[in-house]
Write a sequence for this structure.
């Protein structure tokens, strides 16, 4: 594959699709080889369809991206890939993703179609509507969770969905704040909706969603139904990892000009990567049985 086509897919963003696998972990479905296979297929399908959305978004935003300090180096705005080539490539990626999804279940196909239509609408219009733009991004993550639970026949936890909503809103508003700081006076030229945001407004929304994330996860670990399902009341001891991760991310947002791309920030910052691994290892150790 042409390296520029590969870059056009934004493979570093595929880490977001790990949300698809939450059903395996919190639904105790790792004992089923069939469910594991279906979850992996769903993960790959989401990677391909999400890449399709990124390509479409790059086509729509090509003129604005040419004026962006970093996005102008992407394959389309830099001229390394032509629009017609990108459009054909997007069609191939989307069709392949849906065919793979059909191998998992028809529910996964429906969820992916909703995800695709919603994101095309986002690229064309909805990304210009303040606050709704971030909720659309958060909904994309919720659909990932639903694909890995409801789509595979694993009952989704309401607490899991609430925690997922809080963490994605937190990351979404953090991303908008990072964009405002990075683009400075040229923010509206790149993304019109940034005219309606300000660092002060976004700081308030970040605080609310960060508090909601910490509280919802904490209550989830202590919920009687959670304790019954996982057979342990010790998940509460994973809460400090979540609190540290949230505080570290806010620190990066304010002091190291990070937050614009959560996928890259997670890999680049050793503190974030370490706390995520510790949370995952501890969680698996507590609920595996």
């Amino acid at each position: 594959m042409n390296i520029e086509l590969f870059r056009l897919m934004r493979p570093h963003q595929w880490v977001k699709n790990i949300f698809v696998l939450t059903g395996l972990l919190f639904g105790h479905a790792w004992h089923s080889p069939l469910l594991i296979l279906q979850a992996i297929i769903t993960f790959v399908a989401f990677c391909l369809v999400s890449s399709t959305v990124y390509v479409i978004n790059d086509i729509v935003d090509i003129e604005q991206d040419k004026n962006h300090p970093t996005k102008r180096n992407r394959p389309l705005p830099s001229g390394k890939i032509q629009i017609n080539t990108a459009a054909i490539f997007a069609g191939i990626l989307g069709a392949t993703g849906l065919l793979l999804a059909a191998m998992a279940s028809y529910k996964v196909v429906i969820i992916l179609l909703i995800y695709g239509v919603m994101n095309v609408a986002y690229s064309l219009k909805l990304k210009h509507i303040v606050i709704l733009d971030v909720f659309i991004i958060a909904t994309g993550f919720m659909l990932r969770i639903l694909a890995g639970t409801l789509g595979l026949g694993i009952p989704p936890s309401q607490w899991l969905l609430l925690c997922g909503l809080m963490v994605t809103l937190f990351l979404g508003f953090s991303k908008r704040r990072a964009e405002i700081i990075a683009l400075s006076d040229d923010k509206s030229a790149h993304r019109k909706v940034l005219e309606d945001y300000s660092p002060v407004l976004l700081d308030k929304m970040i605080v609310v969603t960060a508090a909601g994330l910490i509280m919802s996860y904490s209550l989830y670990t202590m919920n009687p139904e959670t304790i019954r399902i996982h057979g342990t009341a010790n998940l509460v001891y994973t809460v400090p990892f979540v609190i540290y991760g949230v505080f570290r991310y806010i620190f990066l947002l304010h002091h190291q000009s990070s937050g614009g791309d959560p996928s890259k920030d997670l890999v680049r910052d050793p503190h974030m990567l370490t706390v995520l691994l510790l949370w995952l290892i501890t969680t698996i150790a507590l609920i595996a049985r």
In short: Residues 33-60 form the longest helix (28 residues).
